[in-house]
Write a structure and sequence with these properties.
mainly alpha; flat
Length: 291
């Protein structure tokens, strides 16, 4: 029964007048069921509590497993051992130097990928000829594993920095291009029609209407692909590198120093979270009109 049917039945009952003497009145209709939304918001305090549980819960489970001795410390070091390893690497200068090396490669490779992918994706989303020309070849290239290009990159560019930066570019540029193009194509057509009606040129529409509307989504795409960039920089440093967090992981693996491996993984996670939060704040700042 739809929501309109009880109202119609109630109106018909009122039109029929009061019940005849000796006839019991009909029971009242039940109230309509409340519709529960699939997504509901929580208070800021509850949100912070849930965030704390999200971080402290896995840490507590990690500490419990290491304290009970269920897992050999060689394979799962305790949080205190990981902290000591991090302090030791920071004291010797290995961790800061490796972190700076990885951040430099991330900045160069990811930055170059963004400089290539954003204009190309913007063109694919705004120019009618660009999408059928570029999307097929980019769609094919994005399914090729970037790590499979490592032998070729070493042959072409050597074992120094250019090959590592090129691997980062290959791992990010194709996905970021297609994601940018999808965001640009989602600009409401009514905005374009109004701009054309007011006499705006195509260049002005692209710079004053399409770009501001698509910019928050472009930053979201960068957030997603920044995580991929971290994955590829570690892969690049596992092969023929003398510095970087991936290189440090390889050295620790040779001597079964799992506490150092865990410490480096924690550092990678914290740096990645910092980059994600920074891009999220930037997205919120430039996209205030979307809230």
């Amino acid at each position: 029964m739809s929501r309109a049917e009880p109202m119609v039945a109630e109106e018909g009952r009122q039109a029929a007048g009061p019940p005849a003497p000796g006839v019991p009145p009909e029971p009242p209709l039940p109230p309509p069921a409340r519709i529960r939304l699939l997504t509901t918001s929580v208070s800021p305090r509850t949100a912070w509590i849930l965030r704390a549980v999200s971080i402290l819960g896995p840490l507590a489970a990690w500490w419990a497993l290491s304290a009970t001795g269920v897992v050999d410390p060689t394979f799962l070091p305790s949080p205190s051992a990981v902290w000591s390893a991090a302090v030791d690497m920071a004291g010797t200068g290995d961790l800061p130097s490796d972190l700076l090396a990885s951040l430099g490669r991330i900045g160069a490779g990811f930055g170059l990928a963004v400089l290539i992918s954003v204009p190309v994706g913007f063109a694919m989303g705004t120019l009618g000829w660009a999408q059928p020309l570029l999307e097929p070849v980019i769609g094919i290239l994005r399914y090729l594993p970037a790590s499979a290009f490592i032998p070729l990159l070493i042959i072409w560019l050597g074992i120094r920095e250019p090959s590592k930066i090129a691997l980062l570019v290959l791992g990010v540029v194709f996905f970021n291009t297609l994601m940018t193009a999808d965001v640009v194509r989602q600009v409401p057509h009514r905005l374009l029609e109004v701009s054309a009606t007011l006499g705006a040129s195509r260049l002005r529409v692209a710079s004053r209407v399409v770009l501001p509307h698509a910019l928050p989504g472009i930053i979201d795409a960068m957030r997603v692909n920044a995580a991929a960039a971290w994955n590829f920089v570690v892969v690049a440093e596992l092969v023929a590198a003398t510095s970087g967090l991936g290189y440090r992981i390889t050295r620790a693996q040779r001597f079964l120093q799992t506490d150092r491996i865990f410490a480096i993984l924690v550092v990678i996670g914290l740096i990645g979270l910092t980059i994600d939060v920074a891009l999220r704040l930037l997205r919120t700042r430039v996209g205030r009109w979307t809230r």
